[in-house]
Amino acid sequence: MTIAVRPASVFADVRALVGPKSPGANVCWCLSYRISSKLNNELRGSARGDYVAELCRAEPPPGVLAYDGDEPVGWAAVAPRSDTSFARSRRIPHVDDLPVWSLWCIRVRPGHRKQGISHALIAGAIEFARAHCAPAIEAYPLDSGEDKVDMTMAYAGIRKNFERAGFTHVADTTSVLAGHPRVLMRLDLR
């Protein structure tokens, strides 16, 4: 299997990875960290998908997609931290004023897991941020040690996967997800 990672500019492919099964549902689309909670609550049903379609047409697009041939099999949300709710977070600290990018969601389709796709997505997100002149990229993964993580909550990523990609632990956070603490990790791109 050869995995290619490309910018998430094809809305149908993004929908296949993060869109809800029911088009009218008020969930996911990977918007909760991307937009304000007020807007997140206002966007209902198909308006959520319409908003993501606009993001896919924008520059930069809202993240990267992993493909196995022509089939989209993975998603990673990556954007300037200043464009996300992490810019205002009280639980995930700012360690300096560097205009870093944030990588906060990794999703691999069922049936394609345990094949290295999350590693390819992290590498693709790094290159995407680098291509957009990001000085560094941050992630806020779970520090689960050797404990298993519920797959629904593993979207934040696992610390050891980011360490393998060269990220280093920069700070602890007060954020907890699925019973596991999240840590702030960073990779310098300069």
From TrEMBL:
It comes from the Bacteria. InterPro entries: Acyl_CoA_acyltransferase, GNAT_dom. Residues 38-190 form the N-acetyltransferase domain. PROSITE patterns: GNAT. This is GNAT family N-acetyltransferase. SUPFAM superfamilies: Acyl-CoA N-acyltransferases (Nat) (SSF55729). Pfam families: Acetyltransf_1.
